[in-house]
Structures are given as C-alpha cells and as structure tokens.
Amino acid sequence: MQVIRALVALFFASLVPLSLAQNARPRHFTPSKPPSATDARRIPDLTDDACYHQMVGNQRVRVFRVQVAPHQSTLLDRHDLDYLIVSLGTNHMGVAGAASQFRLDLQDGEMQVMKGGWTHRITNLGDAPLRFIEVDVRPTIDPAHPICGLAGTACSDGRFGKTDQGSYTFSTLFETSTVKLKKVELDAGVSLPAHGVGRDSLVLALTDSDLRSADKLAHLRVGDATWYAAGPTALDFANVGKSTARFLVVEMK
C-alpha cells in the first residue's frame, strides 16, 4: 500500500502546469531544460516583450498585465520562476517550448499555476484579445509540494460573515511553503476582520474595487495589482466602494 501511495504522489508531483481552473485540462509534459548562460543572453526577458506590461516589481514578485492580439504570440520568453496566471475574460491559449506544448482554456477569473525553469511562448488561439495577469514569485511557488489545494488536500480555513451592511467571504485556494493564495468577496461597506499574520501581500482585483487597509486607500480596476509591505499586524480590508468587491490576496511567507 505504501508503494502504491508513493507512486501516486510521484505521478501528481510530475504534472505541469498545476491547475486551479475547473475546466482547464492541460497536457502532461516535462518542461525543457533551463537555458544555458549563453542561450539566456539571446532569449528576451519578459520586460523586453511588448505583450507584457509590468505593474509591480520588487524582491518578492513581478506582476505583469499581458495582452496578445488574436492568433498572435508573445516572444519566446524566459520564464525562470514559477508563476500564477489569472484569466481576464475567456481565454484560449497555446503554450509551447522547445520540447513541450499544450493548450490551456480559462474562463474569467480562473487561475493556473505554471512551473518555471523553461523558455516558452504563449499564442492566442482565440478570435478576441488574450488578456491575463501573470505573477512571478521569488524564489518559487513550488506547486508540486502543496500544503493544501493544487494536487494536495482541500484548504479548510475559509470564513463567512454577515454584518448590518452585508456579508463577506474568504477562502484559501492553495498554500505552499512560500505562498498562500486567498480569494475575498466583500459587499459594499463591509470590512473583513484582520486574520492570520502580517506578511508581504499582493492584491489582485477581480472586479473594480475601492479598498481601504490600514492607512492605504486603493482604487483598483479589474486586473489591477497593488503591494502591501509586511507590518506588525495582519491586513484588514474594508470595501469603501458602492458595489461588491472581489479580489485575490497573495501572501508571501
């Protein structure tokens, strides 16, 4: 029995990419080798690709808004780090490197974790512009070894609450030894009580959202990103807008 469990665990650990999307069925493949130092000089960084527009960049993350015209492709870019894709709208894309390729179909707001360490291009297979957010995480996401979510057990620290102004929900989508991804929904005028520990955090807006946390007021539109440096206490968000706010919180451990 222990041998069977070990083989099953090894099989799931080899799956790349690792999906959070309900309807995405990527192929099983092995990424090509990372480029050598000589090859790396010839392969553009994401900041050199006109399809990538950097929104946040620091020692922990790089966040890009990505847009590719119908039936066009990005450059053959270096993807050294594990990264998270958040789909903006319905997207149909092909991902291809030197030795691996697969198709990825995502609905609005769906997510996919991609292993880094290989060079590849992304092609828009649809008739509308391809739009998504990419979050590169340093040093790694390590999706093959989840604490919960992804290929591991379901995360169970979600919460639902109701106030005189409305309701709030939050749930953990996945957690690894380096990253925790949470999804939050706040009705207008509702605050999310502080929880967890104070950590460097990235907020990604899934809807137009006006959020206040501590002394920071963020006016976000769909696909916007904002960074919160670690403080002595956990973040507490208040929706000061006039409509329900939905957003992701990427906590850095």
Describe the overall structure.
- The protein is mostly beta strands and 253 residues long.
- It is 7% helix and 42% strand.
- Strand 15 and strand 16 form a beta hairpin.
- It has a six-stranded antiparallel sheet with strand order 1-8-5-10-3-2, with no helix packed on it.
- It folds into two domains: 136 residues, Jelly Rolls (Sandwich), CATH 2.60.120.10; 94 residues, Jelly Rolls, CATH 2.60.120.
Keywords for this entry:
Jelly Rolls; six-stranded antiparallel beta sheet; 2 domains; 253 residues; 42% strand; mainly beta; 2 helices
Sum this structure up briefly.
With 253 residues, the chain is mainly β.
Helix content: under 10%
- Poorly predicted runs: 1-16, 21-40
The DSSP helix count reads 2
Sheet bearing the most strands, described?
A: 6 strands, antiparallel
The first-level CATH class name of the largest domain? Mainly Beta
Gyration radius, rounded:
19 Å
Strand order of the largest sheet: 1-8-5-10-3-2
- Strand fraction equals 35-45%
CATH architecture of the largest domain: Sandwich
CATH superfamily membership of the largest domain: Jelly Rolls
Query: What is the arithmetic mean of pLDDT?
Result: 84
Structural class: mainly beta
Rounded to the nearest angstrom, the distance between the terminal CA atoms is 34 Å
**Helix/strand order:** HEHEEEEEEEEEEEEEEEEEE
**CATH topology group of the largest domain:** Jelly Rolls
Task: Say how many strands there are.
Answer: 19
